[in-house]
Amino acid sequence: MEINRYFPEFRMTHRREFLKYLAASPLLTSYSAFAQEVEETLRERLTDPSEVINVFEMEALAREKMPPAHFGYLATGVDSDETILANREGFSRFQIKPRRLVDVSEISTSVNLLGTEAGSPIVLCPVGSQGAYHADAELGSARAAAEKGHHMILSTQSSTSVEAVAEARGAPIWHQLYATNRWENTVLMLQRAEAAGCTAVCLTVDLPGGRNTETQARMTRSDTRNCTDCHTGRLKPMFDGLDMQGASLNNAAMTWEVIGRMKEVTGMKVVIKGIEVGFDAAMAVQSGADAIVVSNHGGRATETGRGTIECLPEVAAAVNGRIPILIDGGFRRGTDVFKALALGASAVGIGRPYCFGLGAFGQAGVERVLDLLNRELDIAMRGSGTTSIEAIGPDYVHDLGRRA
Q: Residue 152: which region, alpha, beta or left (left: phi > 0; alpha: psi -120 to 50)?
């Protein structure tokens, strides 16, 4: 689409400034006709991560720089991507209720998650195959987390070994686990993660039957490279030494008793990731989980059409403060983080946002994304009259009710 065709009075300078403005808008993801020209403008004008002004702009840069199949893997939802959209739209259900004339000259964003200290409630969630986004891979993400004081959860599908990532982070990390359908593999992975210094295992429970990733399939069609050159016969480092012949990544027979079985073979805390309803949250507490993550796998598990932020009030009521609640899914702004904390979350996970930064600029891009989100959270906290994460409670948010 040529904007000059419809707006001939736009000189080139004005046109580029307009496209740069569009790149910073969340509407970009809804109006793809502008995407190509926006990305071309970003490539010409934004060569330093410090120039990027928000997560949406970083996403456009990553899309332009990454191979189509790799960006498709990162960006895809399932079926019609309805749940990805619901994750973003869900935030509009909740409004912030600010307080005035509060001394906010000094605020603290520090948190403690199951004994792990962090300077921000924003957690780097597990995202697999980060070597596909940039050569820095998970080491770049871990070093950025260390530099900016963020907690990190490493994927089973990491391109880099858990030992190397733990060393790069320089502080305890958590290990996300796909249990496979062989218990002996589960035990070996738990033991390896614990030996590497992980203090918690984050068991993903929302993919018992696979998924239908149509957006990924469409974007892969436009990639001219031979994907089998990279993927055939290669296992992720976490599977080194395991018998994966004929094994599946997930266990469709898994039930709540898996929490007790895991605690028999590891001293790590057990976190259940993929909770979306109050009943399951209560079952997790009853079964001995040390924390839960409200998550729909970034809209890439079951196509529920329900955003995680909309699930949070029900889950928080069921947990009733007994264990920490983390949440991920669609977080792109500091105000999104503030709303989740007000609704009962102890911390908020991001996945795609920091990987957009990784894909665009490597470690420096991850650091920029974290800076942007922390700055926005700081502004939201000061603007709402809250001086600590603990001070952000239900009185600071208004629920407009479920979307029609």
A: beta
